[in-house]
Structure formats: C-alpha cells, structure tokens
Amino acid sequence: MKKLLDQVENIVDDALDGLVWAFPQYLQRVPGTHVLARVEPKGASKVGIVSGGGSGHEPAHGGYVGYGMLDAAVAGEVFTSPTPDQILEGIRAANHGAGVLLVVKNYTGDVMNFEIAQDLAAEEGIQTQTVVVNDDVAVEDSLYTTGRRGIAGTIFVHKIAGALAESGAPLESVRDGAEQVIHNVRSMGFALTPCTVPAAMQPSFTLTDDEMEMGIGIHGEPGTHRQKVKPARELADEILHQIASDLALKPGEDIACIINGMGATPLVELAVFAKDVAQWFHQVQVNPKFVMMGEYMTSLDMAGASLSVLRLTGDMTQWLLAACDTPAWRQGVRHDQ
Amino acid sequence: MKKLLDQVENIVDDALDGLVWAFPQYLQRVPGTHVLARVEPKGASKVGIVSGGGSGHEPAHGGYVGYGMLDAAVAGEVFTSPTPDQILEGIRAANHGAGVLLVVKNYTGDVMNFEIAQDLAAEEGIQTQTVVVNDDVAVEDSLYTTGRRGIAGTIFVHKIAGALAESGAPLESVRDGAEQVIHNVRSMGFALTPCTVPAAMQPSFTLTDDEMEMGIGIHGEPGTHRQKVKPARELADEILHQIASDLALKPGEDIACIINGMGATPLVELAVFAKDVAQWFHQVQVNPKFVMMGEYMTSLDMAGASLSVLRLTGDMTQWLLAACDTPAWRQGVRHDQ
C-alpha cells in the first residue's frame, strides 16, 4: 500500500498542522496537544462541545470545529482513542464557564478515556455531561464495542448540540437535545475495499475482486456478512430497510439523511447511490427534508459508503438549519418538500 | 475493480439525478440533457458562465454551479467531451442576454466541441467568448492535447470569472479576467494508483506496489515519468519547484493555491501534504493568501494529488474572496499574512 506521508509515526501531528494551515479562520491547535480548538470568539455563557476519537476519519473531527458545532476536537492516533490527558486539554479549551458536553462514539477505548477525562475535569471544577452515540444498526456488539458502534450519525449530534449551545441553552438542555438525536438516528455502511492503517501497511482485511462486506464499521472491523458486489440500488434497499425497521419509520415521517463516502469512493459513484436512496425514500413515502452527501466520517482509504437516517422530531429541523460555519459542514436542504 | 453503480451505461444520467436531489437549492437539470443549471434567480444583465467536460472529475463541474461561479455545467460521458448539442443547451441555459463565457480545459475533444457549440450559439444570436485553460506544467503535448492540459487550476478561473460576472462586468471584461487567471496559474499532479473507467473495468495503467507516476493528467493519461514512491515532502518540493520555475515566482509574491485530492486520497494524507506545501512556501518566501484543500477536480478512483498555484495580480484577491455559494466551493482564506 502506498501513502502520501512523511514519517508514518508523525501522521497525526503533521495532519493537524496541515489542517490548521489550510483552515486558519476556523482552527487553532492547542500548543503541545492533539487538540484543535475554535479560533473565533465565543460568548462566555456558551456551553462548550467537545468530540474526538481516533484519527483516520477525517474530516471528523477537526472539520466540525467552528461556529455552530464543536468548540474542540481531540485527535487520537490512527484508529486509536485519544488519551484522557488530551481529552482534558480539549475540555479546558472548550470550557467558557457554562459547562462542556462530550460527544463520544461508542467504542470501548473512547468511552473509558472520556470518562477518565470527565473525572479529571471535575477535579478542576469544570462541569461536564457525556452522550454516547451508537447509531450503527449492523451489529449489536463488535470487536471494539459493547453495544452498537457510533459512526456517521454522530455528525447530526454535533450539529444539533452545537446549534443548541450557540443559542445559549444550558448544559442539561444541550445534553437532552443530543440524546434526542441519538435516540432517533440510525446508520449502516458497507465496504467495497478494506482500509490500510499506515503503520501496518497491510489491509485490515481482504476482499476478493467481486466481494464486499456489509455492516462494516469505520475501523475496518468486521461487518455482518460478505456478499457478492450488488448494484447500488440493492445496497440502498438493503441498508435502508434495516435502518427503517430499527427506527420503526412510518410513511409520512420527516427525516434527515447523510450519504457518506468512506474515503476512497468517487463522488460520481456517491451521486449514483444518492439517486437510489432518493427513490427508496420516495417509494416508502418518507420525506427527506435535509440531505447531506459527501465525505463526513471516513475510514482512511476504504471504498464504500454509509447511510445515516435521522427521524426529525421536535425542533430538530430548526437546529439543523441554524447557522453553522466549519471546514467540513455543508448546509444541506430540501426546498421542495 | 468494484464500483458503486447500477447500470454502467447510465452512470452519468444517474449521477446527475443524484446531484440534483442532494443539492436542490443550487442545481436543476435542463430536461432531457446532461446540463446542470443554476436554480436561483439571476439578474438579466449578468454574463453567463458555462464550463464542462467529461464526467469522472466530480465535483467538477456541477459542483461549481451557483451564485458567484457557473450558470451551467455540461457533463460528457466519463472522460469524454460533451457533444456540441449538449454544450449548446448549457449556453442557452446560461444566457440572460449579456453573453456567455465558455471555460474550456485544453483537451482536443473539448476545444473542438465547444467551438462548434459556439458557432451554433452564434446562429441563435447568442454572443459568446471562450477561454482555454492550460495550467498543467507537466507535459507540453499529451495523449489528448496539443499544448498543455487544463486541470485543477480551472477552479480559479471559474471563481474569478464568476465573481466578475456577478459584479455586472461585461462579457469582454469577464473574459479578460479569466485570461489573466490562465496566464498566472500553474498546476501539476501525481498518481499513487491508476483510475478505472467504469465501462472498461480495467485500470487505465498499472503501477507496482512501490511505484508512482509524476505529472499525471486527470484522465489516467501518462505523466512525465515513473519513480519510486517518495515522502510527501519531496513530492511537494518537486512539484512546487517545477510550478514556481514555470511561473517565474519570486520571493515576496502573493499566491493562492489548491491542494487537490484526485478522488481516493484520504483527507488525512492530503492534510500531511498541505503541511509540506506550507513549509515550501515559507522557505521560498512566497505568501499564500488563499488556500484551498480538498477534492476539487478528481480522476475517478485515482489516489494522488495535484497542486495549483495562482500568482495574485490586480484585483484577483477581491474576486477570490467575493461571495460565492455552490455545492463544492469552500471559501479558503489565510488570515495571518
């Protein structure tokens, strides 16, 4: 496997510097850490939002730092949880006196390290709340989790919690809003090719020329089953059926969705897949009010995609549409429904 | 090779439908054509801007349709020039009575078909001007061109011509602004892996596990030479040296740049590469005022990157910073220099 890198051991450090250089109006690096924090001034009474996890999922999470989403993102090594001391640095950077919400994806290492960091923050008098995202319907337990994994649905949690925080909502309300999203979002993905962790330089698994893996996570961990490569339409049907069943989605309901590329999927293919997703929603009479298509939560150089569906309840649409400006957020709106 | 597709012969049609569905606030399809046109109202006196070319380069060109860039984008089949009748449809959609600028990348088929379309438009009384982008410094003539190829530097032409048009400038001024960009922009790219045209299902060329191709175009056409894979820093040096020589770039000059992923390059690697680019500019004392990093002009599933450097002359910075809202444009600004 070939990578565009300098020293493989410096990949996270180098990439964080590159991101700050490319997006200086949004991002600054907390000196001596793997934390990217917001540049622009924030109100003193605003709840801070921190997310993070292993690297290799770019633009997650640094790409979501900015107005209306995260105050700080903490980057671990590739596919490795950030350490508690780094997470604590992120909490400190995000704290403006009104408390900090930690948005954690459900992986054993992340959950444990964010918990420790939360304890350390408490010792410093920083009030925190944690939500754990577990949107992946593919598997109940997995290689790295007890319970379901957290994947691209996390972006909706960032957005809605971020908008609530920006509006001046107190910590408990921001947490409750995030919990509402977690309660109503489901995701599932597939891989056409494996991904290769730079330090390993060997693919995390192998697939033959006509095989794919369904229900894959974002770390190259196994999915639910292997199958022959199917047309995009059948993949959309298979995934959306599983998501809709789990959500108990009913005709007439309003939803938001993310059509997410896994890192090496050409945009032209993702656009074809989007057409199939649109047709499925139309057939089952579900109303996509808010559509996002692009690379939002990747898995290094994996080819494949994931779908995330959020049932829109309460004020969610308002918070999804609220002003937001970060390197990787793209406003997505359906005007015609 | 595995692709996320339905019928391979429908890839362009399906992808255009998917793009319109995902970005309805920007894009509409001219019925019965492969043309994506702007949704939002435009002033009657505005010069129209049309670009286009083969598909497989997404987000080019549909992703640049919207306020401050293109009025219409014409999509050919994968890596194939759009036909003159389709280009004519694009010109019609972009024409509001003040004439239309055609932004063409220098490939023999594109140049010929845009010329024919221009003649057809003249017969309908639509005034047009054409500019041909030839920013690739790698090769003088190539498999598909006489003279240099047009690649990712085209995005700067779209942006600056689009901003001029939006400001109410007449057709000749918009064309002159575009020519100024073409005169001052240079690009060069490389591939770590080949790309695979869906209908062919075989890579367009082969590279061994430790080989890369320098000076590659955006269609899998040959570059200047093959070499062992080098660290990102050496690739940045090699490419920027060639670009800067060709541009006769001098210390103290202001530039804009695009760090462009070719389709299958993970963002974490592109960020590492960006750091190296930043260091090179710093060493040669060139001032990057405007930085863009991401996928702007791709080559299907090719892993690799290209760099584009624009010398900022006259009012270019103003037009780069002018308001713009399209699916794929991201404002990139250096605040600190």
UniProtKB/TrEMBL annotation, chains A, B:
The keyword Transferase applies. One of its GO terms (molecular function) is ATP binding. Keywords: ATP-binding, Kinase, Nucleotide-binding, Transferase. GO terms for biological process: glycerol catabolic process. This is Dihydroxyacetone kinase DhaK subunit. Residues 7-329 form the DhaK domain. GO terms for cellular component: cytosol. NCBIfam families: dhaK1 (TIGR02363). It holds the Pfam family Dak1. InterPro entries: DhaK_1, DhaK_dom, Dihydroxyacetone_Kinase.
